[in-house]
Amino acid sequence: MRMNTATTTKKRREPMAGTIRAHFVNGILEPLERLDMPEGEVLTITIIRLPAGEAGGGLERSAGGWTGLIDAEELKRNIYTDRVISTRPEPRL
Fold first, then answer.
1. What is the pLDDT of residues 3-29, one digit of tens each?
2. Alpha-carbon distances, residue 30 vs 9, 24, 25, 40 (angstroms)
3. Residue 21 and residue 44: Cα distance in Å, rounded?
4. d(C-alpha 16, C-alpha 25), whole Å
5. Nearest alpha carbon to residue 21 among 8, 9, 31, 35
6. Which residues of 65-76 are buried (b: 16+ CB within 10 A; e: fewer)?
7. H or E element: which one contains 24?
C-alpha cells in the first residue's frame, strides 16, 4: 500500500533536539529560555546536573585556565613584533 506523503507529513513532526538550562523548584523544572513548542507537549528530558559554581557560562568557567602556562608580557611583545613583519607584497599604485 502506497501512502500519500502530503497527508502523512502533516501528521508527523520532525524530531527536535536541543539543550536548555532550567531551574528545579518545588518539584518542577522551570526553563531559563523560551521554548518554541505548543502547551502540553510531551518531552523526553535528559538531566545533567552541574556542580554548584559551574552553572555560569563557559567563559566564566575558563577564566584563569592559562595562569602560569605562558608569560603574558612575552606574548604581547611577540604579537606586536609580528605585526611589524609584512608578508604581503607592497601594492602598486
1. 444 444 455 566 667 888 888 889 998
2. 31, 6, 7, 14
3. 15
4. 25
5. 31
6. eeeeeeeeeeee
7. strand 22-25
